[in-house]
Task: inverse folding
């Protein structure tokens, strides 16, 4: 008997040891990521490898029946036949996806849907590889029931990176608890062409401001631990120089020199990569004749070898196919796939750029096997680092609690308040008195929830959004009569009720006129395969939507469209004091109102709490301190009109000056601030230089307020042409009434360097001018300092 027992025990032990030995290394959570990647890669077929690089459109991959969700037949087919590894925009809802509040997913169902997709994928692919899900997250997760923050141009108007990092962390949490792993954002394109349709998605025209906002977003998205359950991978967009297309045409060709590329367009991306960004998306455009999606210099030499990027790159939607159909640098899909992956483009956003074409390219010896393995390993590495092989599922009850919770809604209001720019306040018309008895609220954007939210926004229940009209009513209470008249549409000129608006203004003590633009997509608009709108000239359209901004809606002029200017002129003519509130996605022609209207607020697209935030500013419960991140031109004929153009200075035109109407950095306050005692202390050592700049800022008014102290620099004489002034540092500070603060900034070699004639980053000996003030045009104090010796800056990494 003992013999049989011993035999049984030995058999059990042997079986256990055999099972342990047979368990794949890549499934061992104690093994290193590199060991797991190598082991898994060695087990994969060509088709399985290519499948991991395909990012398919996700909203087609689930089916919803009441409160139940499951994998769709299309998803099952994609898993079986294409071995897919990633999905994009699974939870997206908008007119393009045809997902509505009824057919889309609330946060709980979203978490259940991603769980169902993960379960099916893992159980039905040979190696049990989990999915990685990417979502649009520029100003909130683009899904039903999430918090909607101001768009990026408003975020940068806060000049408060710490606040934006908090916002990004909230967005990441809301996306991750629903099952997402990648957040698309931030957009780091410089917006120096306001006719371009996507200005609202950017942080404006300046590389320093863009860089700091980008760093804030990356840190907020990714946190310190990708396995935290509340962080997502940040995907930087669009690499690179996408925001300055000729003629303002979205995705069009751009013209830039090598030096300008390095000094202006690349620094925000470099800063975000150095902050740890783990994904980069290529741009649709070409640079010097080479498409960004097949540009080996950008994707391999610069991004990886010089900057040390160790994440994965992904195409913009359809941009690999665009190498054939748009740029015509490849004759066949297989040639396009080979061009892209050999250049260093790892993943395909579309599912048709690689797929069969890449398999054909590999089999035809157009793509070495090690190049394919390199791309696949970069994707798998992040799946392991996120812990998806160990636990790919989320808890739907957490989604119910953490998506659009009260703290996030309050944060949306704070970001919106800090983003509002007071452009003009003649005779201190603002803030308004809450004791006013009759207020007229007029305009096409006064009570339109979608016009307030910007592009990349999901459908919203009306109860989630506070419009300007609602915010004003809540602020003043029942004792004040608030009358509302729309007046006209944004673009439609066929109908208006301007006469009714005039009557309301005549009967009011003040008229708040809410004008601007719209990025609100509707179900009547046609969309391209990339998601950009198919735009028709006004005369060709059967119906005229409000949308005049947002992806695809490029402009030839920057004038207020429709009858908005006529509406404003008619209201101003009544003699009733007028405040204009602008809700829009790009700079517009404000010349007439800047001359005739005493008070103007620019709120960009302020998000779901925009109405409350605007009312907080209108009635003085919040003292505005937003600053423009982009110059507002007087005329399209001035373009480009960004503040840091290279010398020589522009001269005036016959019809107008060369200066913008409102400059970069401009913004007023209900408080008044004085600058004094500018001091610069420098020190030099072997290979280093430092300048400490101090300035006193005093609030000379009776109101507490924020001031954005801006430090600009000029290299007085340089071997290559440089700007007359370039923002280097800034700080948003809160100063109590009558209080004085000393602000210190530290400049180093990277702040002083330029790319010289030998294409070396150098600090050249000579005199520099420090300028401190409240905007690029409102310089309060200047001082000079001298650098004695030349310093090469190898750490620039370029």
Result:
């Amino acid at each position: 008997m003992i013999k049989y027992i011993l035999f049984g025990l030995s058999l059990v032990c042997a079986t256990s040891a055999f099972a342990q030995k047979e368990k794949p290394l890549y499934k061992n959570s104690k093994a290193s990521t590199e060991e797991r990647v190598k082991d898994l890669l060695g087990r994969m077929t060509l088709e399985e490898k290519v499948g991991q690089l395909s990012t398919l459109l996700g909203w087609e991959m689930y089916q919803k029946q009441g409160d139940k969700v499951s994998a769709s037949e299309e998803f099952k087919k994609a898993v079986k036949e294409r071995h897919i590894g990633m999905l994009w925009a699974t939870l997206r809802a908008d007119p393009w996806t045809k997902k509505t509040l009824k057919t889309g997913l609330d946060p709980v169902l979203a978490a259940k849907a991603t769980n169902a997709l993960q379960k099916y994928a893992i159980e039905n692919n040979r190696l049990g590889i989990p999915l990685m899900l990417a979502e649009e997250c520029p100003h909130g997760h683009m899904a039903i029931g999430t918090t909607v923050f101001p768009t990026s141009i408003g975020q940068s108007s806060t000049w408060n990176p710490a606040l934006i990092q908090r916002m990004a962390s909230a967005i990441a949490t809301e996306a991750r608890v629903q099952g997402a792993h990648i957040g698309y954002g931030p957009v780091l394109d410089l917006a120096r062409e306001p006719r371009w349709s996507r200005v609202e998605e950017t942080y404006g025209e300046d590389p320093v401001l863009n860089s700091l906002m980008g760093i804030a977003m990356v840190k907020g998205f990714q946190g310190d631990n990708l396995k935290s359950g509340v962080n997502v991978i940040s995907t930087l967009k669009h690499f690179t120089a996408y925001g300055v297309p000729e003629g303002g045409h979205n995705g069009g060709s751009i013209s830039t020199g090598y030096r300008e590329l390095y000094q202006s367009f690349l620094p925000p991306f470099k800063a975000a990569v150095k902050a740890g960004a783990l994904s980069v998306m290529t741009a649709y455009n070409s640079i010097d004749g080479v498409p960004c999606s097949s540009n080996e210099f950008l994707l391999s030499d610069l991004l990886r070898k010089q900057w040390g990027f160790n994440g994965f790159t992904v195409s913009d939607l359809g941009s690999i196919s665009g190498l054939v159909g748009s740029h015509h640098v490849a004759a066949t899909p297989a040639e396009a796939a080979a061009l892209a992956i050999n250049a260093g483009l790892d993943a395909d956003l579309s599912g048709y750029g690689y797929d069969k074409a890449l398999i054909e390219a590999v089999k035809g010896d157009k793509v070495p096997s090690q190049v394919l393995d390199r791309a696949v390993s970069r994707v798998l590495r992040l799946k392991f680092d996120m812990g998806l092989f160990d636990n790919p599922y989320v808890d739907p009850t957490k989604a119910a609690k953490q998506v659009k919770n009260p703290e996030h809604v309050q944060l949306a209001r704070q970001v919106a308040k800090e983003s509002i720019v007071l452009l003009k306040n003649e005779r201190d018309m603002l803030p308004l008195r809450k004791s006013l008895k009759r207020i007229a609220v007029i305009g096409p954007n006064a009570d339109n929830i979608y016009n307030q939210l910007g592009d990349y926004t999901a459908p919203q229940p009306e109860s989630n959004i506070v419009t300007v009209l609602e915010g004003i009513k809540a602020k003043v209470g029942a004792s004040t009569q608030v009358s509302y008249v729309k007046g006209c549409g944004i673009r439609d000129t066929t109908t208006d009720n301007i006469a009714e608006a005039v009557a309301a203004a005549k009967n009011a003590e003040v008229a708040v006129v809410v004008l601007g633009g719209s990025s609100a997509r509707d179900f009547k608009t046609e969309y391209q395969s990339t998601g950009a709108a198919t735009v028709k000239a006004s005369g060709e359209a059967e119906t005229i939507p409000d949308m005049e901004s947002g992806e695809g809606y490029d402009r030839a002029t920057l004038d207020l469209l429709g009858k908005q200017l006529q509406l404003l002129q008619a209201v101003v003519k009544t003699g009733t004091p007028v405040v204009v509130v602008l809700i829009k996605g790009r700079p517009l022609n404000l010349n007439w109102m800047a001359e005739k209207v005493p008070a103007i607020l620019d709120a960009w697209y302020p998000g779901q709490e925009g109405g409350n935030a605007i009312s907080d500013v209108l009635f003085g419960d919040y003292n505005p301190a937003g600053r423009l991140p982009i110059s507002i031109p007087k005329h399209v004929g001035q373009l480009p009109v960004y503040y840091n153009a290279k010398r020589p200075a522009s001269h005036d035109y016959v019809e107008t000056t060369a200066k913008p109407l409102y400059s970069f950095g401009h913004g007023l306050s209900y408080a008044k601030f004085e600058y004094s005692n500018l001091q610069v202390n420098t020190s030099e050592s072997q290979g280093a230089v430092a300048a400490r700049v101090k300035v006193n800022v005093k609030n000379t008014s009776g109101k507490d307020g924020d001031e954005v102290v801006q430090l600009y620099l000029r290299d007085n004489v340089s071997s290559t042409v440089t700007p007359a002034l370039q923002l280097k540092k800034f700080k948003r500070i809160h100063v109590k009434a009558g209080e004085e603060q000393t602000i210190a900034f530290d400049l180093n070699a990277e702040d002083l360097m330029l790319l010289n004639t030998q294409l070396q980053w150098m600090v050249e000996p000579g005199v520099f001018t420090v300028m401190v003030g409240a905007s690029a045009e409102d310089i309060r104090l200047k001082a000079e300092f001298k650098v004695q010796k030349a310093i090469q800056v190898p750490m620039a990494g370029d």
Observations:
- The domain at 673-796 is CATH 2.60.40.10 (Immunoglobulin-like).
